[in-house]
Amino acid sequence: MPSSHRLPRLASLRPFDHPGYFAVWLGALVSNIGTWMETVAMGVYVTQTTGRAEWTGGIVALSFLPAVVLSPVGGALADRFDRRAYAALGTLLQMALAAVLTVLAFRGQLSVPIIGVISFLNGCVSTLTYPAFSALLAELVPPDELHLSTSLNSAQFNLGRILGPTLAAVVLQAGGPAWALLANTLSFFAVLVALSRVVPPARDAAAKLEPLWAGIRRGIKVARDDEDISLVLAATFFVAALVAPFIGLVPVFAIRELGQGAAATSLLVTCQGAGAVTAALGVGTLAELFGQRKLRGYAATTIAVLSGIYWMAPTLQVAAVCIFFLGANYLVLMSSLSASCQNRMPRELQARMGSLYSMVLGAGYALGVWFQGALADRVGLRFVTLSTSAIFLALVLTTRLLRPARFENEHTLQAEVQPFSDNAH
């Protein structure tokens, strides 16, 4: 009988060979299914209750706004403490917030302001926890599989985007938003079980001695001094502000522009997730074929075009096809941006790098989704979103023209960064 290593394997699935990574990946998938059930339920509730894109975008923005301030703190804490225990604590706090929302829904006391407050608090906890979770995943695979693990992590998030909205549509039809919120609350148990089964590699005890604010400053300095990381973070901000709001404004597009309801919202969210999962299965092959930097350049150029086509879709069916390809392109671009930042950092700084990436992504997305929603109420959703897509395309083409070398293949910086010592400042 042939050994298993002789069997054909998709390159993108290699991180699954590491049991700890797979356990955390699976637990996160279950949790994200619950999260997307809540996201769809709350998006439909806010849109139908207020009738304003500004409110829908504003609620989404509140969950990302804490990243602007708290991300560097979360990264430094994740590098300072045991990442598994730290991620578990954050998961428990998110479960508690989800439980509060569930109880209020069952008691008929749900309201848009309450949703806004809990979204903001959940954003705070998520911002402080994400760097630890991201760095823990990076520890569970070898460095040469980091891009693949990042893509698979995005794939599980988007697989949750497929299954969660589908289940949400059924639950909303059968029992209302309270049951979708209950499902999200229970889903956090999967993450806790997964974390209990992981044994992360031993870390250098000296890293824990670095003062909190010194650790924050050090992570920012390394990122600032590296021209490639600075450019990637700038690109992340503009993607988040100009293109990514298509995610948060799906309920507005489905209900106001296409004249549909909760089922259509779930369909569009599901199709985006399906596109992302499909892309995740092939992103490893694409990265090997083109190289990460070239692939990132191609994805940045095409995402603006696909975004414009999506916003011009005349029917739900056309929009569903368009958002499938847009979701695939978005995953390729964002996983490449994230992996590029992590690959250029030594392991001891990877959580801080993840926190800076989250800060830039959260700031850009919060600003973009709120501003586009508010402007859409005044001049029309399609006009606003088509304009921002065109602006992003112009920025990409200008960068390609002025700095073509930044779209060629890159090297990593990990060996060039000195580890922390007691004399570092």
TrEMBL record:
Keyword tags:
Cell membrane, Membrane, Transmembrane, Transmembrane helix, Transport
Q: Where in the cell is it found?
A: Cell membrane
Name the SUPFAM superfamilies for this protein: MFS general substrate transporter
**Annotated CDD domains:** MFS_MefA_like
A GO molecular-function term, please?
transmembrane transporter activity
Give the highest taxon in the source lineage. Bacteria
Provide the transmembrane region boundaries: 21-46, 58-78, 85-106, 112-138, 181-199, 231-255, 261-283, 295-312, 318-341, 353-373, 379-397
Q: Which InterPro entries match?
A: MFS_dom (IPR020846), MFS_trans_sf (IPR036259), TM_effector (IPR010290)
- PANTHER family, from UniProt? INTEGRAL MEMBRANE EFFLUX PROTEIN-RELATED, STAPHYLOFERRIN A TRANSPORTER
Can you say what this protein is called?
MFS transporter
